[in-house]
Amino acid sequence: MSLASERRAHLAAQPELLRAIQRGIEKEGLRVDASGNLAATPHPAALGSALTNPRITTDYSESLLELITRPLPDAEALVGELTDIHAFVALRNPAEPIWNQSMPAHLPPEADIPVAWYGTSNTGMLKHVYREGLAWRYGKVMQCIAGVHYNFSLPEAAWDGLADGETPQDRRNTGYMALIRNFTRHAWLPMYLFGASPAVSRSFLQHAGFEAQLTQLSPDTFCLPWATSLRMSDLGYKNPNQSDLQLCYNDLDTFTARIHNAVTTPWPAYEAIGTHRDGRRIQLNTSILQIENEYYSSIRPKQTTGRCERPNSVLRQRGIQYIEVRCMDIDPWTPAGIAIETCRFLDAFLLFCAVEDSPLFPPPGFCRESQDNFAVVSREGRRPGLLLQRDGCAVGLRDWAQEALDRIEPYARLLDAHSGDGSHVAALELQRAKALDPELTPSARLLAALRDDGREFHDWTLAQSQAHWAALQQRGLPAGTLAAYDAAAQASLAEQAAIEAADTISFEDYVARFHAALGDAPAR
């Protein structure tokens, strides 16, 4: 029996472990006006405080909502709650639909893109200044690209049969890092299957300066003809200074040591900007990264943080709690931006990544081959005969995709044995069809819809967004659920006010304490 078979048997013999798998979603989306232009209004008070509402906050821009579910035990409940949150926003802020596409709506001049505001507390100002720093470093336009983050965790007891280590935390850390390596090896696969951003409007390209690199599909629409995800390509959101920042996915200690180094090492271009202008702070520091979350990657190890705690420090202290998949595009055909079937496939895929053997990457612990595969699939994943690299050898994307899906199938069946239906295998079969026929992928469907409808990318996306918005309003919410969301919104406003009233130190002192919370450089 293979190692993977033994591990699957371990899980199959303890169905309570599968029942204890948790998943959550953080879904971003721009608020727009009736014409599909970026909303210039403040974060709606009816949605609560962006600082303290656990379900509705903002990402980079004041106009970029982030809707957050609880960790939940199955995909149906997960998408149900995410749809409920969307419905609440639609009911309480009906005039501003959420743009249901990863690539942005029509944007105003960069100076007029509002940076998210979280109030006057030190905690809120830290979040705001970090985002101001992003604007100085990378510009505001790229920060308006939106996506879906998928969080996934296995119960502590599951790692006893899946990973080595002296303590439960050691086994958990080893197991999640192995999952991350396997995900990295196969990250091109969800890009091919779910990438849904092959096109953009001219206005985005004019802001971003990429117009010459794309093909003009119609007067206002540009694309890469074989692309799956411009968002995740080198045309999308990326941090140029991070190109040489190669993190180690072989062990958590080295991973956190390299993050610590990036957060504490000055970068000349950012030193030239400085930390203050006209008497106010404009970035948190002049390091390669202001904070750990500035590092942009397709997957992250995560641990819940409290106020003034640092992600790197809590990872070292408490270990990895869950992983966050960050490469999912918004699905423009679903009101919540992600389909139940997609979640079911991701669960099987991530379980596969956790259970299958995951050899260490060669020194320095970073896989350039996997990064290159991810990049080429983002830009031209549907190109006929496309070849990827696997262990130094060329392999056809179509062949590798079918092989990978065959290996994922036992995990879909394992989840179905727990759920008592065939929903995970059915979700996997939908992906098999895409592997055989690229025209079934979301990226191909989107380009076909633009050609068939004869509409611009902006107009098509606006129509989709408005139709979803109307459906969400018509769907509504049960009275009790609506009241609970209203109460949570009001409570969050009160909580923000209490935080603001409780501050006793200056913002500069608070920033100094925040930096000190990073601690000394960990041993490598």
UniProtKB/TrEMBL annotation:
InterPro entries: Gln_synth/guanido_kin_cat_dom, Glu_cys_ligase, Glut_cys_ligase. Its EC number is 6.3.2.2. Pfam families: Glu_cys_ligase. Coiled coil: none annotated. One of its GO terms (molecular function) is ATP binding. Pathway: Sulfur metabolism; glutathione biosynthesis; glutathione from L-cysteine and L-glutamate: step 1/2. Keywords: ATP-binding, Glutathione biosynthesis, Ligase, Nucleotide-binding. Residues 14-361 form the Glutamate--cysteine ligase domain. One of its GO terms (biological process) is glutathione biosynthetic process. It catalyses: L-cysteine + L-glutamate + ATP = gamma-L-glutamyl-L-cysteine + ADP + phosphate + H(+). GO terms for cellular component: cytosol. Belongs to the glutamate--cysteine ligase type 1 family. Type 1 subfamily. This is Glutamate--cysteine ligase.
